[in-house]
Batch of 3 targets.
Target 1
Amino acid sequence: MRNVMIHHRVFFCCTKPLSILPSLSPPHLHLSYSAAAAAASSPNRAIHCMANDSPLSQPLTGGDGSVSVPPPSPASSAIDFLSLCSRLKTTPRAGWGKRDVKNPESIADHMYRMGLMALISSDIPGVNTDTCIKMAIVHDIAEAIVGDITPSCGIPKKEKNRRESEALEHMCKLLGGGERAEEIAELWREYEANASPEAKVVKDFDKLELILQALEYEQEQGKDLEEFFESTAGKFQTDIGKAWAEEDSLPIIKSETVSSFSKSHLPSLSIFGLATITSTEPTLANLAEKCAVAIPEFSSADDDDISKIRHEFELAKQRFINIPEALSSMPKMNPQGIYVNKNLRLDNIQVYGFDYDYTLAHYSSDLQSLIYDLAKQHMVNEFRYPESCMKFKYDPTFPIRGLYYDKQKGCLMKLDFFGSIEPDGCYFGRRKLSRKELENMYGTRHMGREQARVLVGLMDFFCFSEACLIADMVQYFVDAKLEFDASYIYNDVNRAIQHVHRSGLVHRGILADPTRYLLKNGQLLRFLRSLKDKGKKLFLMTNSPYHFVDGGMRYLMEESFGLRDSWRDLFDVVIAKANKPEFYTSEHPFRCYDEGRDTLAFTKVDSFHPDKIYYHGCLKSFLQITKWRGPEVIYFGDHLFSDLRGPSKAGWRTVAIIHELEREIHIQNENSYRFEQAKFNIIQELLGKFHATVSNNQRSGTCQSLLDELNMERQKAREIVRSYVVTDTGQESAFSYHIHQYADVYTSKPENFMFYKPEAWLHVPYDIKIMPHHVKMTRTSFVIVVVLAICSFQMMESSPDLANKVKANNIQYDAINCRKHSAVITEFGAVGDGKTSNTKAFKEAITKLAPKAADGGVQLIVPPGKWLTGSFNLTSHFTLFIQKDATILASQDESEYPVVAPLPSYGQGRDAAGPTFASLISGTNLTDVVITGNNGTINGQGKYWWVKYRSGGFKNITRPYTLELVFSKDVQISNITIVDSPAWNIHPVYCTNVIVKGVTILAPIDSPNTDGINPDSCTNTLIEDCFVVSGDDCIAVKSGWDQFGIKVGMPTQQLSIRRLTCISPDSAGIALGSEMSGGIKDVRMEDITLLQTQSAIRIKTAVGRGGYVKDIFARRFIMKTMKYVFWMSGAYNQHPASGFDPKAMPEITNINYRDMTADNVTQPARLDGFTNDPFTKICMSNINIVLAAEPKKLLWNCTAISGVSSKVTPKPCSLLPENAPVDCAFPVDKIPIESVVLNKCSA
């Protein structure tokens, strides 16, 4: 980190769109605090650790270190508090004093700049910026009393915390207590405990401010402050912290330094492309001037009338013929250029790392045909696809990089930078969908980032054949008029593609005919040799096996080397089968590969030798062995996720190799393309002026005629431009979004670096739009956007009554019952500002609407806005409809949650032995209840509850759940999003006839007990089409706890779970138990996708539970990356208050799993029954489990179980013997709830 920060201290002026920091001129951040300087330079002020001997601290601290602040008098007030805090302005930071820094910053200086960091940082998902600002301001506030205690002061950390905590308590009392004092105290404790995402961000800002200040002191005072950089190295916790520290984004130091850099260093790069990037200042504005096309600044509608726009349009059409001549003076982009997303100094780079496939090795287009044909054969021969599919041929003109596949609808699509489907970029099979078909299928082009995550991205070159084969298979079924499951087609094609790679078929095909598939490149050898000659270290890290890499490298370089195997002399380390991206996060050991015997040694690898080959390994061990520091390493790769995401997060610099970039830039440089692009932008500006001029006027026939002509000309130019470029590095593509995220720079080939001097500074161009290699927009276009936004805001402000508008929307939705009566929450005085409590409004609404429920039912509509509320109860024959862009925001005021008795089948709260807080939305003994919307949100604001729970703040009470319905029937929860629940998200208990459908649940993966959906002692329940990211089990099936559950005796039965997608790294996808004392039976689970879960299906129970788990059926699971696939445990020994019966043994029997695939698994199964009460009748069939690179030695850990298996890989334990081919049971009948047909309703 030190190297990056030091060498970039003279130029940080980044204005790229996705920059973490906004564009600020350096003087804004080069802060000077005269008060602090004056105080620090005062002869009466000693600079010491105030905890020991500071003149300020001595009168305030007792001999035992306790704080002895006089108690506040009746006159104590905010003024007294602020007067005490003023000491922060005059108390220097102790570390600078010990290094003899002149005029050192004060504690207040430090806190203030941290607050600025929080203020100017971009929005971070899951992080509240306002909270970060507040926390930055108060995190060191206790130092007003105890001073700046640093590690060099010799005060133990525990003692430091005690002193500061006591000081904080006195300061809060001085403030007079109350809400603000409590908030300050809570923010301080949250920061000290590092207990929230905001705390982690602010702690990173604390370190960033330290090294930023050290940089300034080094430059201004000539100090060597190396220790401060070393003290923070590798300790940043957040992406923004790492990015600002390690990716050169801190915009610091003086403006004159920047200008001097620009003059002295840019010319050295001008002939190699960087000047091309930064010299595109004469953009379309200059082009318009040269063509004599008048595009003046905006003025009001009074000055610019339609006739003037018509005149400008006619003039533009006449002068279009002059564009080609004007283009001759416009600079062109360099096809071999390096394009910069994040500033990069090559003289800082000491280590160069490379991927192999499509990075060092260039392949011909014939490789895609080879992969396509091999995968197609596998699907026909092994998966029994129709023989006629063998006639399919790979079409190189069809796929592009960066496509997405919708596994539900079967469409291949291109997404733009913002997650919307490109209008002309969606295919069903080989047929492009029209805009009308696209609208009918998806409703809207905008997928949104959350929805887009459930799509499958096809991001690398190997995906070309995969995309083509998917489209051909879909087209086959469409042409044959056969029903098909789009997800199955993807799974089969993906499995086939994976097979041809893992089996070595592709590798053998390439090496059998290298002249056909591999492209020799003499420049690559020159580049690698030049790096070695400059003393750089080189390493090769690839997922491919060594024999394949060796064969390819010999072919690529043998003519230049003369000796077939001397390519290895170029590399200091060669790592094969690295298993990226897991390499960057795992702790797998390196294994030394014996080329002659084709075996791996088991001896520990603690050093690397150039004459040896290494397999597997991990980043942690790699850095320990090599001692190579992150910022001095640069890694080249073609796959944005597998190759570059891990290195970018680990602090390495990254280069994306995008082979198609060179062709795209050649096309962009053609005058015909540039001509149409110029026409398009000129017309676009005229259109913008037109809309801004007439947006509030009645359009006449003349206006409409002009508008039609402008639109027609723009569409013609757009279609011509799009016909030129078929790749997906487009300036508005989702692929470009990922390039920005994970690539510091990008280029078409590694050897393009030869054209840059080794001391080159690669700098972000100041005028980029989305991608640095694209044509820039004129300033006028941005003015149009601003004007239209202002007009839209004004129109929104003058809209009619919100309630009437909401009712007029007439949104369609599906529900078990429609409602005769309707109301909007604003009719009851609710305010959607996110600050005003609406608890009273919700309660009043439901009370007043309840009498109408018997007369055809009633619905309460929550319109767009943020509606803060505490707990409220629903009523029968009632629908709560949450509109899109509406958020029910859970209050963090505990007084707004009544305390209620624990459930009878639990006997106590789940967190503690006492009662529970009422859930946010709840109801008891209800009939016909619907909670739905068109993807509205319920935000539980769980952070407050998580922090307090972890710190032991809830002594005898359980946190609230988000949704809980008790003893109710005919319940529907659908089409909503729930985020950050305090604990469990959805909890129907003692209910009958329940539907949970189309629900998205999102919580941090480390949030405590945020189970997704917990059906509890329920009968006839359907859970389908849900997406859950959770800190606990995605679904947990329950029926009561120990003696309390046995006494109530209400089982969960007739439960169907289907089409669930789940992510939960520390818990189960679907758990049965552990609270199962009332019994669980007849559970059906099918078409489940589990990604990064601890286990797939887990049965949890214990001695004393009693009850049973039986008649469990699961099929068609797709699982990736997990510790266990199947987990059954009889040792889940959490019990309520004493009194459980140790003789109450659970019965676990008739468990059926079939038709499943799992990839990257550490241990297939851990099945632990009771010695005196074994788990019986376990059946597993047609299950294929692919192990992780370093699996458990004991793959199947089985005790006290019995059952059978059939066609299961790896082979199960002896307690599940292989039986004759058999399919484990799955019921053919339906449970009653699956036959319910929902009604079409409107809100």
Target 2
Amino acid sequence: MVESVIGPCVEKLADYTIAAISRQFKYLFRYDRNIQNLRAKVQDLENKRDDVQSSVRGAKRNALAIKSEVVAWLKKVDDLKNEADEVLNSTNSEMRCLYQRRCPNLKTRYLLSRNAIKKTTAIVELQEEGKFDEVGVRTPLKLLSFHGSKALKTRISTKKVIIKALEDTDTSIVGICGLPGVGKTTMAKEVMTQVKDIGLFDEVAMVVVSKDAEIISVQDKLADMLGLTFDEKTNEYARASRLNERLTQDNKERILVILDDLWTDIDLKTLGIPPLSHREGLKILLTSRDKHVCEKMGALSNIEVEVLPREEAFVLFQDVAEIFNDATGLKDIAEQVAEECKGLPLAIEIVGKTLRNRERHEWRDVLNRLQHSQHSDRVYSSIQLSYNYLESDEHRSFLLLCSLFPEDQSIRIESLVRYARGLELFQYSETLLDTRNRAYTISDTLKSCHLLLSGDREEEVKLHDVIRDFCLWVASKGEHRYMVKRDLMTEWPEHDAHESYSAISLSFHKAIRLPSRLQYGNLTLLRLLETGSFASEMEIPKEFFDDMLELRVIYFYGVQIRSPIQLSMGLRTLCLNYCTLEIEISFFRSLKKLEILTFFRSTLSIDFHRNEMVELSNLRLLDLRFKKGPCPLPPDFLFGMKKLEELYLGYYNDTSYEEKEHIIKELRSLKALNTLQIITDDTQFLMQLLQACSEKLERFAVKRKKSGPKYRSVYLSGSFGDIWRDWMPPVTELDEDYFINLNWLELDYLDSEYLIDAAGSVPRGIFRNLELLELSNMSRLKEICNANFPRMEHLTRGVSQPALFYNLKDIRVSGCAKIKRMFSESVAKCMVNLQNLSLSFCMSLEEVVSMDTQENEITEPPSFPKLKRVVLYQLMRFVRFGSQPNAVGLRQILLNQVELPDMEKLTIRNLLSIEKILSMEETPFGSLNRLRVMDVGYCRKLVNIAQSNSIKLLKNLETLKVLGCSALNVIFDFEGLNVNKDDEKEICILGQLKSLELMRGDCLVHIMRMVPKGIRVFQNLKRLEVATCGRLKYLFSASMISSFVALETLFVHFCEEMEEIFGRDEEVVKEEGMASKIVFPELRRIELIDCDAAICSVHNPPSSSDCE
């Protein structure tokens, strides 16, 4: 009986015991397999981490907030990888027993094998956790701070009145009214900034409504500001309902909606704004030229923004025209000019910028013109003056051209280029490239004089609504008039004088029937846009163009055209975008002067024939990017276009081998071609295109199509471009002749370990003309060049053959997770023309220049003689610019062992490992002679900006900004500074510094400490701003007051512990004979917010008569 019970138990116990013992022996017997398996899993984990980090970078570029679970997962990955690396690194040590050298240490192998299995299991589980559908979420937009009133008393008081009205619980809608150009929008932006800063509202959304209010557009802008995404694309009522839900989902949330530039009253319910009586905490701020509009909208409080009084107008004018003293002898004339602007800020801005740096006789001329102006509107008079003062008719015509676009629209300069080319606006513009360069130059000039604004993107511009009104007013005078109307609903607008119009720009909200035989005999430009849902398109009648014989530019969007239609023989620009075209070849037969022809996103039904298409021999730009697939080109189609400069082919995949052969052959014949765009997945075709065109192209966009969630791309470009593909061998595996004339190279999402991987020496001539190199998201990249380099002495011996990277001017590297060093010393020696260096999101990068691994003969510090701008951003392990031998245990110095004699601007953000920026011992003397701007942010281990004698290296520094450096306790530490005691002459240090901004200095105790007697600092400092420095008790010692003779602006914000601006002399070497009278001769503005600081020490306060 007992045996029958005990027997199975013993047997079971034996099984468990044997299994456990067997498992322990497996740790020993499968040691190599377990270690190799762990190494493979670590590599898989790194790949997964790189993919997630790439997605994170993409989300950040799209302003998405990264999910906390993603951040936590990446942290777990780093921790687990470090633990796994410890196990793997331990396997490299000698695992031998103490007595028998050939006998493995079984205990060590056992422990390592067991740990390897544990880490492998943990890695597999962590990889499963890392399957994220999305890594980021969209959050409400963060408002940019806006300060535009320049401390003008009347503006400050008006702002207080508006904010007080918003604080009133009985007021839901507040209006801001005033003349055009008086500053209503500027005031609304300042109110927006301040109510957020003081916490009056949790969210603020500001949208421009403008004259031609389009409900869907306003809803889009409002949703963007509130972080709301619409699923409903065209139904404004459904969108209004979603906005209503967003604004009412939390009745405790305080929200301010600002509707700017209202021209007429609109129904708030139509926008999606709920009844304010039902939503506590929601308020509306309106701006309008018309007080009655605000009243109709229900504004109980309407505040008028008045023109500036004479004194404030002159202060603003001085700032804009940059007249800060009477040394120029212009002050008397400037006062009169400012008075003629009648206190209108827009007029002051325009006239002031026009007269900046002008001669005295030009000031007198402007004054005379203003005094004798016939126009009753002073804003228009001031704009007219600036308009007349433009240097050429080309500038004036270009500005008027911008008024053809809708109010508040961001205008693509490329569109203006095509219009200007067709109208022949510019002299001496033989090529399209000449026209484009001229257009960008004029755009910059117009922006500099405040007649154009920057657009939403770098290549776009905007018109202020008042400037646009002025341009249309100018265009309405004389023989040539503009007709500009938007969102017409029913029919072509009525008109009186058909012959007078030179340009017409009309947009229709829905398709209408267009009239026939419109008699516009002087019309040179016609823009027609159908902006509705495209359910039905406007159809062009047969006789529509019959009496438009002077037409030079046509831009159609969403229009339907059927043959037969006869166009003007003088037509030069024809843009048919998003159109439906059922035309015959005869449509183009007479267009012998046509230079620009585009079919972007259009559908086309046409039969091309070789003989008839040869007539387009004057064509310079051809865009064949149709909506559905490529346009089949017959053989020899391009041969007749000898002047063609830009060709956009679009998607070119499902085409025959013969057709591709013809294209390559014909592209070789186009000697003027400088721009090519094509999309294909034919790798061989891509390589043949490279071979055929790379020598002459300046702009090259070639994309390789690929399905799936992940893409690989390489960009070969003169100013843009992208080739999508799965592969990218090191470029030296390609024929080096491909890259002889390449001046711009961008690589993105590639698997290469090296840009140049040459077993022997680098081929001569490769990249010899390269000017820009951009590498992004290359997760496997280890080094830019893996090659033996010759020494660079030949560069100074008159050898004509340029070295590798000799002409390189701009380097940008971002998101390359594995790269630890940028260049070896020998590579760096080649870059004698480098001007810009930008490195970001390279998590393993430690240094820019490192010692050569094969050739360690170069002993002098590497030099970048022309490097002007350096940006180092989000580099977690970055510690130094150049190699630092025997650096273990030493503080890491950023600018060490490198000469930067021409550097003007240094930006460093989120460098988490650097402790010091400069060192007199390791930073070559004279290296920073031209450094003028330094921007330092979020370097958590940084202890100071400069210390002791290294402060002398910043002798030409003009601007310093320091933000969020949590370990920083002093900016400039003078302790240990060598001073010649025998020299009685006062020594000036930091004498060129004009602007100093210090923000979020959690541990900042001193700006300067231990300043020796005989040292004078900051004698040219004009602007000082200190914010959120909680431990700072005073800014400077009282003995330094006499140094601030140039100080104009002083801001101190949110410094709770601040007791006094100029404090006691406990931390400095006291200077005898401190002046008893405190004088700030140039100080114009003091702003103290949330701090109780006195101007000077409360221990020895001056009398009121001692302060000026």
Target 3
Amino acid sequence: MAVPGYVLKHRRTTFERAEKFISSTFFTDVNLYGKLYPLRTDIKGIKHRALPGLITRHSAVTFEEAIKGIYEETRVGASFGPTWATHWFRLDIEIPREWGLGKQVVLVWDSGSEAMIWRDGKPLQGLSPDNKRTEFVLTKSLDENAFSHTLYIEMECSDVFGAGKGGLINPPDPNKYYTLRRADIVVKDPEIYQLLLDFEVLLDLIKHLPEESNRSYQLLYGVNEMVTTCQSQSNYSRARDIAHTLLSETNSQSQHTLCAVGHCHIDTAWLWPYEETKRKCARSWSSTVRLMKDFPEFIFACSQAQQFDWVKVNYPSLYADIKDYVRQQRFIPVGGTWVEMDGNIPSGEAFIRQFLYGQRFFEQEFGKRCTEFWLPDTFGYSAQLPQIMKHAGIARFVTQKLSWNLVNKFPHHTFWWQGLDGSRVLTHFPPGDSYGMDGKVEEVMRSLNNFKDKGRSNHSMYLFGYGDGGQGPTTDMLERLTRLKNVDGIPKVTMCSPETFFSTVETHEAENLCSWTGELYLELHNGTYTTHSRLKQQNRRAEILLRQFELLSTLSHVVGEGGGRKTDYPAGKIEQLWKIVLLNQFHDVLPGTSIQEVCEEAGRLYEDVLREGSVLLADSANQLIDTLTPQGGCTEHGTARIINTCSWQRSEVICWPEVTLADRLIEMAGVTTQAGRDGKTLVFVSDIPSVGHCELRPAVKLPVPVTVQKQGDDLICIRNGHIEAAVDKTGRVVRLCMVNDVSRNVVSVGSHANQFVIFDDVPLFWDAWDVMDYHLETRTAVVDIIEEATIVESGPLRATIKTSLRISDKSTICQYMSLDTGAKYLKFYTEVDWHESHKFLKVEFPLRITSPQVTYEIQFGHVQRPNHFNTSWDWARFEVCGHKWADLSEYDWGVAVLNDSHYGWSCIDSVLRLSLLRSSKSPDPTADMGKHKFTYGLMPHSGTFQSAGVIQAAYELNEPLVCCGQCADHSSTAASYFSIDNSAVILETVKKAENCNSVILRLYEVYGGTTTVRVKTSFKVTSAHLCSGLEDSLDGAIEIEDGNCLVLHFSPFQIMSVKLTLGTTTPN
């Protein structure tokens, strides 16, 4: 009987027929998948080396070391560990001759963990069952020379995402063992593999095209015909022809185009330590290079100079391959930074150093710089990043993290991002909302459907490849995308570089795009401003220490050259220390969202920088003062000297450090002193020159002494010439006012400033990352007194009140509230012994201020955010990031809170809160536990915060004067190497240029206005040029007055770098 030419089709059964035909689970005895591996045999020669020293945590054993010694037999089913251990295996593979020639033979290895294949000392490919990469092609066509193979496998005892015990972000299980589940060789039929991919892609199209569309049914009937055709293996080629015909029906010219870019986001540390990332890079990039040999159109984008440098040092043969593909413009360095850093917490100078050292590396290694900033996975983006990018020569930006917003959907995918100063960068968020897609039709359609800028732009990026833990693109992904190049019904998919994508948009679509002004605030992960507070404190101190060390080293070098006493500039050491700090600013380290081991290592690295940097700072200070010593030596007694690294004159109380002859030098100077509560000497120093130094000397006129006294049974009053305050028994400020207007109390009526408060802190999932809005409903004031407010220092230079509070039966606070003579703010030296679980400690300041906006310092400027919850965009920002200060002001009156180490803030209804400590338990159960010491300040002011000196006060709180006892020429008692005639501009950086003997100044406008300033230097200025953050000379002449004064014109919040050639100096 003849077979009918048609059969009525039921959509579901027809679709599932094809699904089952390629299933790896169902009917594999008769379906197509079951024929993929026709021959298989176990590997007989599996040997394992387990000598002492080889099974070590994060083993740094080289291949040469690993292959030495005796390997012992092991087998499938054996287990290896513990967590983070490294095991090496030798595989002696013999392919059975009866398999015959011409076959593709594949090694299958599944140890349940990450691994890497080595041969002849070269890393060949990474393996990871988590990312479906368990196969390694031994030969594509078996010949007489390919029956025997010897391979080595380096097995890492962790999953691709570490070893969380019972969950992704749980703390690692330290005793996890991994079982060798499979080690065999198979024949893989390439024709069947290609046919399986044809089926998979076609079924994916049917599933995600509109169900009732003609195209969907056309594909369904075609796939059904393919299944029927495959009843005989001799017809497989015909089935492939059917697939080719279906996939060759192309789109119209108007169809949206996806620029497919291979990508492998590797967190420099996260659920694994830095040392493991080095191997993740090798596993991932060796696999990528191997794929490039098979897919000539494959383009791969890769960021983070630090990771390139690690591969260069540890895997030179792989690095040579990478450099070759970079030359071919297929392995494309992107980003331009040392690491993918956090986008909120680092200082402005640290951001610039990320680009400086990153771009220098890429230029030195590959002969070119990156043209786009690449930061897909950080937790929000500072409003100054567009200007910093432009200052580093980059005008394009790629990220996708704002797709994680919890409340509001960001309205654009391709747009102009305008920064604080008006700088604009072309910005793209891949609309697939991921940097790790895998070539599926669903992702392609999502990219089109999500795209918010339809009509304005017809192009977007599609980033594919396994990420976070690495591994990157796979053969399956590339095969899928090859089939989806130009298929009717879906966007066009073309492999191209980020450069090609951005150039297309700039040429054809840029004028159509919308703009977004200000920060890109991520409505999630805002607990990261506070988690692991100690790391953030170390980072702040390291940034400031390096600034001071670099400045004094530069001055010492220039002054020494001018005086014929040349000193070596420690360029190598400065770069080394900066790169450690930049490494720790990676977006899962500085935010505190990594495992305990990572945070502990980061802490040790910071301590190394602080310890070594402190010694180097002291050396550079002494070296600078030495340049003033007569050539024949100093015959008089030494003098105590003070160095000011800020660009304005300073007068303040200092605690003299423990240095040789300190007490004698202070006594000789005849200055006013006070014995401090810690046994050190307090000294009032006055008129310390800007970016300069002078000997310790009596003040021409001392400020009004500070006084403190009890007022009744409940209050203590403290006062100097600027402010006065009343403090209750718990250390809370009940009254704070200016001395010239005592009737105006800045503390809200019936409230208390400096009130410690604790909140429940239980997020939905991301423990170390998130603080949720509902935590605000759980406020509890800390009022349990251990020690009532007591006067412990009574002036005349400093008065201090001590209080101790109990947070819980596990945690306590001890605080010293101080007011110095001449100071405009109260200081709160705070010690917390913290042992909580899922609690959040803040200090709050209810202020008698009416204003809709709060001002917060950020990198090189400040931003305003709402003091209300009017809209969803407002209340989504219930916790925000700020740096050294925040200010709430109304006309001609306001209050600022300063701090030396914290970044989390909130303000609603004029209650300003500084976030102090969290107590998350995943991924680090010890986060923030233990003892903490930090300082914050409370500063009432008249006028604006700009005119009141809030910005300078915050600098002074964070950047101590440098003290030294040193012999010096008394004819030069003071020197100011740089000074600025306008407090609206701050000299942030003084450094020696990277590639010449010039000096780089980095300044910025801090008030938010247009201004002209004169920067006077004690050096003769031979030449002055504007330059970029990368120190490239820019167009634009700089006017020089009197041979030593630069006339500079600033727009609001402008960052300016100046390259100077300097002559001799005469300290003034």
